[in-house]
Amino acid sequence: MSAYAALSQAGYRAYTRDKTTLFFTFAFPLIFLVVFGLIFSGQEVEQSGRPYISYIAPGVLSWGLGNAAVFGVGFVLMQWRRDDILRLIRMTPTPTSAVLASRYVLALGIGAVQAVLFVAVAMLPPFGLELSSGWPYAFLMLVVGVTAFLALGVIVGSFTRTPEAVAAVANCVMLPMAFLSGSFFPLDAMPDWMQAISRVLPLRYLNDGVSASLTGSGTTGDILFSCAVLAGFAVVFTAVALKTFRWSDRT
């Protein structure tokens, strides 16, 4: 516990001192919200009759949460391994679980603040997002989603050796997934084959769960189904992450 507490405190201090990263972590998804929200303001999706904001806001929020988790842990693990910080940590009685748990708690905290800020902006008059009574379920989706995408970020961070490689691999994973999962464009308006592909992507279920929670686009059963599928992805990604985790580039 002492190792976990020390790593958590160090991670928090390092994150809050990096003002540029701190700013863009929260600003990046808000920029997409503002752009798409203003472009499609007052418009409805023809296939469902629902306002565009009810698709855009949950989708961009889900993508922002996943993106922050993948990039955050991916860059940190790569840098710590490259600078031999992980090797030094390994020389102490610190298990792998303490290293990853410290990053996990930080990612959950960032995700919670990110979600609250994002929803508050989306509810402003220019965008007009209206919350359903099931909005508290969004926090359950946040926890499971951050778990899955943090594990995915650990895998990315374990295989990459430079910041450029982390950015390239993470973007190659997250950007196509965002478009294919309906984060930027309603799945209802996509071809059937794209909707079929989306069913094997974790972001699809985070989008669905968050959307059902915030806008009432689905039932409680739909939310729990999305949560269960996403939890399955989290288990698989975590198993792979623990298997591929490396303390040093020399091994």
TrEMBL record:
Entry keywords, A to Z: Antibiotic resistance, Cell membrane, Membrane, Transmembrane, Transmembrane helix, Transport
Membrane-crossing residue ranges in chain numbering: 21-40, 52-77, 98-123, 135-159, 166-185, 223-242
Molecular function terms from GO: ABC-type transporter activity
Pfam families reported in the protein's UniProt record: ABC2_membrane
Example of a GO biological process term: response to antibiotic
Membrane topology classification: Multi-pass membrane protein
Annotated GO CC locations: ATP-binding cassette (ABC) transporter complex
Broad class of the protein's primary localization: membrane
Highest taxon listed in the record's lineage: Bacteria
Keyword Hydrolase: no
InterPro entries: ABC2_TM, ABC2_TM_bact-type, ABC_2_transport, Nod_factor_ABC_transporter
Cell compartments where the protein resides: Cell membrane; Membrane
Domain ABC transmembrane type-2 positions: 20-248
Family (UniProt): Belongs to the ABC-2 integral membrane protein family.
Name recorded for this polypeptide: Transport permease protein
The species this protein was found in: Streptomyces albidoflavus
